[in-house]
Structure formats: C-alpha cells, structure tokens
Amino acid sequence: MKAKDAVTFLSERRRTLLLGGMAVILHGLSRTTKDIDIWMDPLPDAEVWTQTLLELIAHDPSFIVQKIAANNTWENITPANIARVAEQDGMIRMAASDRPLDIFFVPNELEANDFDQVWQRAKPMDGDLRLIDEIDLIVTKQLTGRPTDEIDIRFLHDKIEARYRVILKTCDVKEGQELLDRFATPEIAAYAIRESSDEQVRKFAWNILREMRDQGDPYADELLRELNDQS
Predict the structure, then answer these.
(1) Full strand arrangement of the beta sheet holding 91-95
(2) How far is 146 from 24, CA to CA, in rounded Å?
C-alpha cells in the first residue's frame, strides 16, 4: 500500500490532519518532500489512537513500524510497542511501499488537547482529512533548527501577512483582535496602525507593538519611533 492510500485508510476511521512538507506544498510553496506527515486525533489516549494503526497493519502487514533513534536514524519496533513509543516520542513512522508515513500522536509545540481547535481551523479535504491552517503549521515547525523548516516558515509568514493586509484594512475590532491575537509581527502591527479604518483596531495594534518593543524586539522599537515621528 502506498502512503497516500494509507492516509485515506486512516482518515476514514479517525480525524486526521495533514502536516509537514506536503501541507506546505498544498499551501502553495513549490518544493519536494520525501515523506508524508499526519496528525491523527490523539484523544482520549495512546491506546485508543493505536487501535486505528493496528487496523491498518492488519489490512496490509507489509508496513514496517519504526521509531526515531540516535543520529536521526530509524529503528524497527513491533506493533505492540506503538502506544508506548507514541507517548514517549510523540510519533511513529510507518514505511509504505513508496515513501515513509510519519504519524504524530502529538506534534512539536502542541498538546493533545489542542487537536480539536486545530481541527476546527483546518481546511477540509477528502473525508475526515483536513489541511492544517498556516499559523498552526508554523507552530509545528518552530524550534526544529532545520533549514527546510526555516524556509517553510518564511513562506507561510509571507502568505499570512498578505492575507492580513487585506483583512485589517476594513475589519471591525472583534475580528482585528482575533487576527492579531493569533498572529502578529511588528510589520503587521504597524500596518494595522497605518491602514485600519477602525480606531479600536489601531489602538490594539499600538499596544501589541509596544509590548513587542518592551520584550526587546528592536524592529518593533524602530517602527514605533517611525510611527511617532509621522503622527
């Protein structure tokens, strides 16, 4: 069975989010990926989570189950150890006929209890498979230190900022606060100050930019000085 068919099999049985490089590609970045990453609903626990994987293995016994080992190599494990490894490492790998399928119990920088909110924000695809939202995708790629993830994050940042520039011009304070609470950079906060038609959105953006400056962001400090000079 190919990795894509395995994703379909799993998502028909359990809510599943597409992550990783494939998600970035579907969000519009032209690049390649050697594997497929998914986050399968981790609630209520690892034992229940594992049952769906055992169904897949029973359907196609050719899958090789692996865990990450030293020096980023992969070590084979038995199906009986899946739940333990998932809780310990946050994920397992299943080697399909064409490419690896990395299945997360809990992705980087997220918690099991985050799944429902991340699911609600995601874009529906086929069946119970959804494409993770750009902001949540950035969260999973933070702190990895991998050059590929840094490129992905920059692309996703640019895409989000472009969308925010359109919305922040005319949105009301409720929507503006929701947007900036989820994602804000000094440049986006400064844009809202300059361009928003809503006074309360502008005030909220001023506060965010000041908080960034107080936390030691030199770019926020520079933008505040520029904005004060223009006012």
Answers:
(1) 74-76, 64-68, 91-95, 100-104, 36-40, 16-19, 129-131, 123-124
(2) 15
Cα–Cα distance measured from residue 205 to residue 157, given in angstroms and rounded to the nearest whole number: 18
What sections of the chain are H helices per DSSP? 3-11, 20-26, 46-59, 82-89, 115-121, 134-141, 147-168, 173-182, 186-195, 199-214, 218-230
Can you tell me the mean pLDDT for 213-226? Answer: 95
Could you check whether the bond before residue 44 is cis, i.e. omega within 30 degrees of 0?
yes
| CB neighbour class for 93 (10 Å; exposed up to 12, middle 13-18, buried from 19) | buried
Taking the C-alpha atoms of residue 204 and residue 25, their distance in angstroms, rounded to an integer, is 33
CB 39 within 8 A of CB 139: no
φ, ψ of residue 141 to 5 degrees: the values are -105, 0
Contact 138, 107 (CB under 8 A): no
| Mean pLDDT, the chain, whole residue set | 95
21 close to 31: Cβ distance less than 8 angstroms? yes
What is the three-class DSSP state of 122? coil
Record the pTM. 0.92
pLDDT digits (tens, 9 = 90+) for 73-87: 999 999 999 999 999
C-alpha to C-alpha distances, 7 to 15, 80, 90, nearest whole angstrom: 11, 21, 18
According to DSSP, the residues that pair with 68 across neighbouring strands are: 74
List residues bridging with 124 in a β-sheet: 130
The pairing of beta strand 16-19 with beta strand 36-40: antiparallel
